[in-house]
Amino acid sequence: MTVLEDRIAMTDASTEQLDAWFERLERMPVPEGFRVEIVGGSVFMTPQRDTHWQIIRRFLWAIDDRFGRGAIVFSDVRIDFPGHQNGFCPDVALLREGAKKDAKGHWRHQDVVFVAEVISEGTAPNDYGPKKFAYAEAEVPVYVIADPYQGRCFVHTDPEDGDYGSRTVVDFGTDVDLTGTSVGLLVPTDEFPRDTPRD
Fold first, then answer.
1. Terminal Cα distance for the chain, rounded
2. Cβ neighbour number for residue 50 with a 10 Å cutoff
3. Considering the entire predicted model, what is its pTM?
């Protein structure tokens, strides 16, 4: 087998395992207002807080303002990413125009052009670590982490060799200016709410 054939076989096996996991999870009584995703083969279930959702909405509004309502954009929809059993449900994922589902009915990570994740206390290490590397491996051009606990956005661009070559820190209150990237997006953060850690 070639390296490419090995990768395709591993991806197919991982997708089948993820399909089985998500089928089981869909039958479980997951509480209302919780989101479930699989990162590196581990299941994470997190409650969505109002601060979290308000920031997601503002990203979605910025995408609507730039691309219109016909844009292929999702929140909390499963997309499988490179690595061991990575069935992520990004807070915001923008797909390229004309993106289509694969033969199994899944959206393809190859079509994702922008991801934004809003930090939750319990899963922050995933967003800063394994998810960032998986998005870079998938060559997602722009990945933004919005951290309401720090009051900052971390903008990652230039994916190469499984990591991002560039990182810019933007304080809440300053626009996240992605007009110089392939996404061409401007995200105002002056109304991004802050959050405080729970004791």
1. 52
2. 9
3. 0.78
